[in-house]
Amino acid sequence: MASVARLLRFAKPYWLRSLGALVLLTLLVGLDLSIPRLIQSLIDHGILAHDRGFVIRTSLLMLGVSALSIFVAIGNNSLSVRVGESVARDVREALFLKIQTFSYGDLDRQKTGQLMVRLTSDTSAVQRLLQITLRIGTRAPLLMVGSLVLMISTSPTLAMTMVPLLFLTSGSIVFFLVKQEPMFRFVQQRLDRMNSVLQENVAGIRLVKAFVREPFEEQRFEISNRAYCDESAKVMRFAALMPPALTLCVNTSLVVVIWVGGLSSARGALTIGQIVAFTNYLLTTMTPLVMMTLLSNIWASGIASAKRLDEVLSVVPEVDDAPDARALILNGAPRLVFDDVTFSYRGTAADAVLKRISFVAEPGQTLAILGATGAGKSTLVKLIPRFYDVTAGSVTIDGVDVRRLTEDSLLAAIGIVPQESLLFSGSVRDNVRYGQPEASDEQVIAAASAAQAHDFIARMPHGYDSRVEQRGANFSGGQRQRLALARALLLRPKLLILDDSTSAVDVETETLIQQALTGQTEAQTRIVVAQRISTVLRADKILVLDDGRIVAEGNHGELMRGSQVYREIYASQLGAGSPPPSELAGGSTQ
Q: Model's pTM, two decimal places?
């Protein structure tokens, strides 16, 4: 219940509405409890006394109480719904903002499908829990307490006979609630798995079709879907045991009341009106219990979901600003230094992806990183903007460890074109100026031109106002890469990281992009990751990575003379009889 208590802070801004809902609920309980007493008076002082006027007055009073109850119930429902919807909105927003603070490591553990379930299904379950609490969940115990008090005042002896049954009924409810909560948590985990499979399939549907893997994916989804269905059915079967059990308790209680009350009435100890009133109070006591059993699914599901939401909201990001972090201020192109860097995704040196990496990128240099798939190239550049923290060693920019810099200032100084060129739904213009929304059209066109994207944008029916579909589905891979590059260039970063960002464009277009980058007037240090050797020929320095280690370092000429690995890569991609690098790259090499 601690998780539920922590989530109650989201209801604090709406305490006045919540209080209003509870006040109306209390009034509604009072009105409900007055009906059996009025029935007792109607029978004892009206019907049995043959007093028509008293019967009419009491009947009208009961109608008035019932009418007032309707308006009070409407008011309570309205306030409860508003509080529930408002809290659900705030929880979703808090979850969304929390996810924005996650580091790459946190996102590696929290899968997309799982986060989507928490933002939707789990939040809705907590919303229902809150609304039910303000409407019925609180009303039930109030009715029980009030009915017990009035039962005792009506007939203490008869009330004592009901105590064991009431304890048995209450204990049954607690038992079912405690047992159901972990079961519902497991159901939500099954839903996580099903959503993950669904999300992966939808995102990769083109690949599925290309490899004719529809039967395999159907089977995979069927397994996760069936597991979710079976687990849900198991919980529902367990929950279905409660209503019959409590109905048995209610009927047993009625038999006891009629039997004991009838004997007492025969002795003159109870009036008929008292027996009827007591029976009504008994039903008023037991009916909320039965209602609570029907609502136990909502309670158990809400508590389970509250724990899952609290798990996300309680995450402390792996990467966060240090207490003494300072802003990064660059007056020109920075100097980047990797000093004996080791990195492992699990934080242990035994399974390190990068091993004792050391190099220097001088201000204004273009440093290229070359290597086979899995060599650690992309991992290396993710340490620069501090998407991950190093396991050992340090990464410094102008002599300052990136862990001592504020995250916002660090990222503001770096332009990144990731391996996967992701576009957002909207216009081409909005995608290019995503990192600088106030950029002018002239700046957008200049960045697109440098990225060799302006020509194909201009040919589109609506130019820069053309629609970009979700994830850029209406653009080719090369077009997406050029738009992503334009987005980074628009920021005019002092440090530019290109993570295999031209792999989908042809060599001629790549050469034009390199020439445009070289022709920029602003000083800029560039880190270029590539598998294609033509991408790195003109770099000031080339690092050759193999199995997480630097096996060679130098410019093209130096590596051709001194690195067997580099020569093998060159020969495998360009061939032994290839033209000189100056012709391939459109200029001289270092």
A: 0.69
**Number of domains within the chain:** 3
Provide the token pair at 208: 């599925």
pLDDT tens digits, 382-437: 999 999 999 999 999 999 999 999 998 998 899 888 888 888 888 999 999 998 88
Domain residue limits at 424: 416-492
Angstrom distance (rounded) from CA 137 to CA 131:
9
User: How do strand 400-401 and strand 414-417 relate by DSSP bridges?
Assistant: unpaired
Question: Of 253, 281, 313, at which residue does a domain stop?
Answer: 313
511 and 458 within one domain: no
H-state helical runs in 155-213: 156-203, 205-210
What's the token pair of residue 457? 């944008």
Q: 200 near 162, Cβ under 8 Å?
A: no
In a domain, 473, yes or no: yes
CATH of the domain at 97: 1.20.1560.10
Q: What is the pLDDT of residues 204-216, one digit of tens each?
A: 776 777 777 788 8
Task: Check: CB of residue 453 under 8 Å from CB of residue 483.
Answer: yes
C-alpha distances (whole Å) from 418 to each of 268, 415, 577 are 89, 10, 33
Q: Looking at 492, 512, 527, which one is the last position of a domain?
A: 492
CA–CA gap between residue 392 and residue 290 (Å, rounded): 61
- Indicate the DSSP class of residue 403: G
